[in-house]
Amino acid sequence: MNPMVKMVLTLAVISAGAAAALSAANQATADKIKAAAEAKAARAVLKIFPDCTAPQRSEVKSPTGEAVVVFRCPQDRVCFSFSSAAASGISRPYSGLVKAMIGIDGKGEIVGMRIIQQTETPGLGNKIVEDKFLDQFKGKSAKSNWKVRKDDPTGVIDGLSGATISSRTVATLAGAALRFYEETLKSGAPAPGAPGVNAPAPGPGCGDAAPAPGDPGVNAPAPGPGCGDAGPVHDNRRPVVNPERFQDRRASFGNARRLLRREMDRRRERARAVGAEQDGRPVRPMTATPEGGQ
Amino acid sequence: MSNMRLFTNGFWRENAAMVLLLGMCPTLAVTTSAFNGMGMGLATLVVLLGSNVLISAIAGLIPKKVRIPSYIVVIATLVTIVDMFMAAYAPDLHASLGLFIPLIVVNCIILGRAEAFASRNGIGASVLDALGMGLGFTTTLFMLGAVREILGNGTVTVFEFKETVVRFLVFSPEAVSPILVMILAPGAFITLGFFIALKNYIDRARSA
Question: Measured between CA atoms, how close is B74 to chain A, in angstroms?
Answer without folding.
Answer: 7
